[in-house]
Amino acid sequence: MFEARIAQGGLLKKVVEAIKDLIEDANFDCNNSGFSLQAMDSSHVSLVALSLRADGFEHYRCDRNVSMGMKLANLSKILKCAGNEDAITMKSEDNGDTITFMFETPNQERLSEFDLKLMDIDSEHLGIPEAEYDATVKLPAGEFQRIVKDLSSIGDTVEISVTKDAVKFGTTGDIGSANIMCRQNKSVDKPEESTEIDINEPVALTFALRYLNSFAKATPLSTHVVLKLSKDLPIVVEYHVPDVGRLGFYLAPKVEE
Amino acid sequence: LAGQRSISAFFAAK
């Protein structure tokens, strides 16, 4: 059987809210080492990869590898019934056709149980090679969210260019153009406001803002977002959940028309 | 989505 309990149930709620508009349904794969998901959006332009480590859970048991297909909209409906402070326990029997979610209030006075029907989902798994990137930028997640939102009111795509001192986000549209530059700032007083750039090679790539806006829905998960860029390769937009795992988004670059 | 490449063009199926 599979059984996992997470004390910060709000975290699971945030993860599902971050991906439910991008992917319709997905298989949640569970094994000894943890709980993971990999899925492409319906137009196969972007890829979501979630991994939550077994030791990030308060209790974790997975007797045999299971793959549980769920419709994200339905999972979201159920998790919306959990309080942000609730502990959440997920349970499923081997070869079972449902997963049970148990929500427990911090004072343990209210205990709720919801069963979600599992589905058979055909999904293609892609191998993501470990790579060294031309540039890695770590910036406050809220800052990134604001940048992609603001630029979306001007254009459809953003050129992200990274040099050793700064990262620039630029767009052009019918009404004009916009450029936002963030300088490297390894602020020690307020680590949550730091912007760090690690660069092997200056790089500039163009991406669809619509997808970056969608990825930014993961902002509540983490103080910082990490952007990894290499020439002609997909961007990685990564949110780290301390002590628990990561949610990564991959987006193919736009090519010159 | 003009000029947009598919993500599966970059990563091989497992």
Percent of residues of chain A in helical segments?
10-25%
The profile of the biggest β sheet of chain A is: 9 strands, antiparallel
Rounded mean pLDDT of chain A is 95
Unreliable spans of chain B: none
Backbone structural class of chain B: little secondary structure
Structural class of chain A: mainly beta
Shape, per Cα inertia axes of chain A: globular
Give the C-alpha Rg of chain B: 9 Å
Report the largest inter-chain contact.
Answer: A-B, 23 and 14 residues
- Oligomer designation: heterodimer
- End-to-end distance of chain B: 26 Å
| Structure summary, number of beta strands of chain A | 18
Strand content of chain A: 35-45%
Topology as H/E string of chain A?
A: EHEEEEEHEEEEHEEEEEHEEE
End-to-end Cα distance of chain A, whole Å, is: 51 Å
Sheet with the most strands: spatial strand order of chain A: 6-2-3-4-18-17-16-10-14
> Major sheet of chain B: size, sense and barrel closure?
none
Q: What does it look like?
A:
The complex is a heterodimer of chains A (257) and B (14). Chain A has 257 residues and is mostly beta strands. Chain A is 15% helix and 45% strand. Chain A has a 9-stranded antiparallel sheet with strand order 6-2-3-4-18-17-16-10-14. A 5-stranded antiparallel sheet of chain A has the order 5-1-7-8-9, covered by helices on one side. Chain A has a 4-stranded antiparallel sheet with strand order 13-12-11-15. The model of chain A has no long low-confidence stretch (mean pLDDT 95). Chain B is low in regular secondary structure and 14 residues long. Chain B contains no helices and no strands. The model of chain B has no long low-confidence stretch (mean pLDDT 87). The interface between A and B is medium-sized, with 23 and 14 residues.
